Amino acid sequence: MKKVLVISTSLCGVSNSHELAKSFAKGAEAAGNEVELITLHNKEIKFCIGCLKCQDTGKCVISDDVAEIMSKLHDADVVCFATPIYYYEMSGLMKTLLDRLNPLYGSDYRFTGIYLMTSAAEDMPEVPERAVSGLNGWIECFERAGYAGGVFAGGVTAPGDIKGHPSLAKAYDMGKNV
């Protein structure tokens, strides 16, 4: 059994990328894993101020919801991020969270497999490439971690457009095989 953390980074409470996150989580749970799904909707996540004090203390000087999220991420074996694609990139909230996770660098984190679920109005297969590249830039800082795969749902614009989309089954299967 693995400890799986799924982080939905959309600010929209009922987003298409959140539906992908839920499918991934259901698959991981069906496989017998311990799964937690966190949504960043309504969380307080401030911008990194670049002070780098976290490199000395292992903790961020900013007081918000990131400390709790970071603790859960630190102890997870598998992490799955879900994000809408805006202008061919991950959501700003996801990028802000990744920046704030700097205290994990140099820690004895457990995660090894990192997944990415993405959704966008555009339906070309190359749409999520920059989001994957951005996430891989973060992953490269963690030598035991690696990009384990992703699912892209293209052609979904309004909340709920993803209903019946084949990407939901793909996300479920990917979660089931973590």
From TrEMBL:
InterPro entries tied to this protein: Flavoprotein-like_sf, FMN_Rdtase-like_dom, ISF_SsuE-like
Pfam families given in the database record: FMN_red
Keywords, alphabetical: Flavoprotein, FMN
Keyword Flavoprotein: yes
Domain called NADPH-dependent FMN reductase-like: residue spans: 3-103
Domain of life where this protein originates: Bacteria
DNA repair recorded as keyword: no
GO MF annotation terms: oxidoreductase activity
Name of this chain's protein: Iron-sulfur flavoprotein
Species in which this protein is naturally found: uncultured murine large bowel bacterium BAC 54B
Origin organism lineage: Bacteria, environmental samples
